[in-house]
Automatic annotation (TrEMBL):
Basic residues composition bias: residue spans: 1-10
Entries under SUPFAM superfamilies matching the protein: L domain-like (SSF52058)
Name under which the protein is recorded: Uncharacterized protein
Top-level lineage group: Eukaryota
Composition-biased stretches (Polar residues): 11-29
Coiled-coil intervals, chain numbering: none
Stored Gene3D superfamilies: Ribonuclease Inhibitor (3.80.10.10)
Keywords: Leucine-rich repeat, Repeat
């Protein structure tokens, strides 16, 4: 083959290669733009001015990196929908979530999450965190940095000890759900949660309540059903704001406990009966 012809074929191959590279890069850029555009189209603009995004299992198998460009996002929901028939669930919370600096609500229920990255503590504006029905065993200490967190949902996980980092949210935390975990006791530092209104502890293995729980004076709802409690703290009647409606769903639920002091039939009658019983036994 003549040298000129070889050179032309070489140049031709080179041009084809360069063209393919250019096309691939262009395709990648188009994909990124399309993904960004699709994500922005999925963002719901709520009446209160907040911006919400729900990434359904049917929409994505991998969290697109373009998500982290949506720094003005207020609400992110990555809760798989059973109706979708998809098996995809999130097993790892990306560290890049920290880039969503304005996030106020993060919903991660019904996934396979085993742990949170330390970087979750950088979501300083977070007000609501829901991560029920996962495989969490604890929380990173950095959670204590979420000083705007008002509502934390952690039911149906594998938590054996109440994460102490939650007790540092003394000025903000109003609602805490640790139902259906493996708790055996509560830390004495729970008394720091002075603003707490609702504490749900159904279906654990709690044998005794610390006296410190009686210092949660703003507590309105306390569910303790299906535990292993035999007695209540002597100052339990200090929880004056427990909203006890006999004909409604009780705000304080003791069913499923082997209570002896006071017995279950007394607890069912409400706080006045409990207070009277405890006074008699303390004389």
């Amino acid at each position: 083959m003549p040298t000129t012809q070889k050179r032309q074929r070489s140049i031709s191959k080179s041009n084809i290669h360069d063209g393919t590279s250019s096309t691939t890069e262009s395709t990648k850029q188009i994909r990124i733009i399309k993904t960004q555009s699709r994500l922005r189209m999925l963002v719901e603009h709520l009446p209160n001015g907040r911006k919400s995004l729900h990434l359904k299992g049917m929409d994505t198998l991998v969290i697109p990196s373009e998500l982290y460009e949506l720094t003005d996002l207020d609400i992110l929901d990555i809760t798989p929908e059973s109706k979708s028939g998809m098996n995809y669930t999130l097993s790892r919370v990306p560290t890049d979530f920290r880039l969503l600096i304005n996030l106020k609500c993060l919903h991660l229920d019904n996934n396979n999450i085993v742990s949170f990255p330390n970087e979750i503590g950088e979501l300083y504006h977070l007000e609501i965190l829901t991560a029920s029905n996962n495989h969490l065993t604890t929380l990173p200490n950095q959670i204590r940095q979420l000083q705007n967190l008002q509502s934390c949902h952690l039911s149906n996980n594998k938590i054996e000890e109440m994460p102490l980092c939650l007790c540092y949210l003394s000025k903000s935390l109003l609602f805490l759900d640790l139902s259906y975990n493996y708790l055996r006791q509560l830390p004495s530092s729970i008394h720091n949660l002075k603003q707490l209104r609702t504490l749900l502890l159904l279906g654990n293995h709690i044998k005794i309540l610390p006296d410190a729980i009686c210092q949660l004076l703003k507590l309105e709802t306390l569910w303790l059903g299906d535990n292993k409690l035999k007695e209540l703290p002597k100052n339990f009647s200090q929880l004056k704001h427990l909203d006890w409606h006999y004909h409604c769903e009780l705000s304080s639920n003791f069913e499923g406990n082997p209570l002896e002091n006071p017995p279950l039939n007394v607890c069912r009658k409400g706080m006045e009966a409990i207070e009277e019983y405890l006074k008699k036994t303390q004389k």
